[in-house]
Amino acid sequence: MSKPKIAICTDFFGKYDSYSVSNVAFTEAQSFVDLGYDVSMLVRSTYPESDEVKGMKFLKVMPHPTDISGVDPNFELPKDWKEQAVKARDILQETLKPFDVAITHDWILQNATLSWNWAMRRVMLPKLTWYHRLHSYPTGEPLPDGERDELGELKCTMPGSGKHYLVWANNGHALWLSERYLTDLTNVKIVPL
Length: 193
What we know:
By secondary structure, the chain is an alpha/beta fold. It has helices spanning 20-34, 81-95, 114-120, 150-156, 174-180, and strands at residues 6-9, 39-44, 57-62, 101-105, 129-133, 163-168, 188-190. It contains 5 helices and 7 strands.
């Protein structure tokens, strides 16, 4: 039996050792490579060749979205965010066809990755299993059904199609995350850093 083909999905435009998400993603990817998995990292189209890591494939396919500030709850969406999201969906749909596993890093948490959050929810690849690693937990409470707008759906719920799991570093917040993202506790996987 062959090992699953893994895509590490990021919004990286370079390898920055001072950025904790980058360190976790690269350490995770390197661990998979060391164990004999075929690993590709999806990065922004502007990712420099000098930051590529031996043993991993770098797929420079992610479009560079309009800048959206971090996790500020009062941010305003850029006018073209949906256009960016449709482009990202088309790229993901095509790029992820050969993969069995996609691991995202903060795509369902950060405002800066809203277009990719929207896009991944619309990728229809039946064999693909998604793992959404959260590097911090969201604040606030999700709005009840019927009161969430599209943005609320993106930031407060698990993707509805395919197989999707949240990945957290310890058991301390597993129940809270399942409640926060309106999903069953079995959809929260614990993978220590």
